[in-house]
């Protein structure tokens, strides 16, 4: 643990910081409304629009649409001229383009979803209990899946994993892949789309996520090579050439048990790869924005979800490399090598 030397803010300076955070919270809430009500998409497709036109296109109330448009213009998101509002290309990509790596809208969706459970979180913090993933609902599920979708369909499948020679040979040769904690299935689907010879089995314990993953596979045209199972990885059978777990090990109440199952599924020759948050090597205060973001997720979702299960180790989002290495050794691996894959938010490990 290290502590950096920082200048302590005055009351006025810190008050300004908190005030800015309140503005940011309001902005995220308004963005959530614009997303859920279809206002951003309508403006991107048909703008410029008056509030009345926007309301008519989205079956919403004009008075609310007008207040929202004015708020967004005051905040510098929308442009306004002669009573008509326009969503410029840059913000439109961030707010509406689901396949762009600049698509940040899902993070606002997740923030609102987590906030709905604030009373349950307060109770859990007092009792030492938890708040189950199921309780966070659709916003959390859809937000997380949408946030990672561009990454899984793009860089992970087409650049990151193929940069690992042993994994590339499997992807090029048409091997079998197991995707542990598959969620909405975009990681498995991305691999199948980028590498036509591979077959992928995805495993997850969340029923709505598995149902969505199956629909997504059909729509992507890969359901013949990608199958999703509502099952614990520990119950999976057979041997796979590559076994992956993307951004889920830190959530698990029993990460060692799941890593041991991944080791078994990889057999004598399979490759095991874990992707998890690129947090700092050790706790240092203050931390950068990625560190702040991950601690925020841990406070509001990942740690409470993990703690909702009896016997949980309570990892939380901020799983540092040495923690994963310890879990890997306890699961029977010799260790966890950090792969030379550069991503702003995620670190990739090979377990052997």
UniProtKB/TrEMBL annotation:
Transmembrane segments: none annotated. Keywords: Methyltransferase, Transferase. InterPro entries: SAM-binding_MTase, SAM-dependent_MTases_sf, WH-like_DNA-bd_sf, WH_DNA-bd_sf. GO terms for biological process: methylation. Pfam families: Methyltransf_23. SUPFAM superfamilies: S-adenosyl-L-methionine-dependent methyltransferases, Winged helix' DNA-binding domain. It comes from the Bacteria. GO terms for molecular function: methyltransferase activity. This is Class I SAM-dependent methyltransferase.
């Amino acid at each position: 643990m290290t502590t950096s030397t920082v200048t302590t803010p005055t009351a006025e300076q810190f008050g300004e910081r908190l005030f800015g955070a309140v503005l940011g919270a309001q902005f995220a809430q308004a963005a959530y409304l614009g997303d859920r009500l279809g206002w951003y998409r309508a403006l991107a497709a048909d703008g410029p629009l008056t509030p009345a036109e926007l309301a008519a296109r989205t079956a919403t109330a004009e008075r609310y649409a007008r207040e929202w448009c004015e708020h967004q213009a005051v905040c510098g998101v929308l442009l306004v001229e002669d009573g008509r509002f326009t969503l410029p290309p840059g913000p439109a990509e961030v707010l509406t383009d689901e396949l762009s790596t600049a698509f940040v809208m899902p993070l606002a969706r997740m923030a609102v979803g987590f906030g709905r459970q604030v009373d349950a979180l307060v109770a859990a913090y007092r009792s030492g209990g938890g708040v189950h993933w199921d309780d966070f609902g659709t916003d959390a599920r859809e937000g997380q899946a949408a946030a990672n979708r561009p990454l899984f369909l793009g860089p992970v499948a087409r650049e990151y994993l193929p940069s690992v020679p042993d994994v590339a040979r499997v992807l090029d040769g048409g091997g079998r892949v197991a995707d542990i904690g598959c969620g909405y299935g975009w990681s498995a689907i991305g691999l199948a789309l980028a590498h036509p010879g591979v077959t992928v089995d995805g495993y997850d314990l969340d029923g709505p996520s598995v149902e969505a993953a199956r629909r997504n596979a059909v729509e992507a045209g890969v359901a013949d090579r990608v199958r999703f199972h509502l099952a614990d990885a520990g119950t999976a059978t057979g041997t796979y050439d590559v076994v992956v777990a993307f951004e889920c090990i830190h959530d698990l109440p029993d990460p060692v048990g799941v890593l041991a199952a991944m080791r078994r599924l990889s057999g004598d020759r399979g490759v095991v790869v874990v992707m998890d948050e690129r947090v700092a090597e050790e706790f240092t205060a203050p931390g950068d924005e990625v560190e702040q973001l991950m601690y925020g997720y841990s406070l509001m979702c990942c740690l409470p979800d993990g703690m909702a299960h009896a016997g949980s180790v309570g990892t939380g989002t901020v799983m540092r490399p040495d923690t994963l290495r310890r879990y890997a050794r306890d699961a029977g691996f010799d260790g966890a090598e950090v792969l030379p894959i550069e991503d702003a938010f995620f670190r990739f490990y090979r377990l052997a």
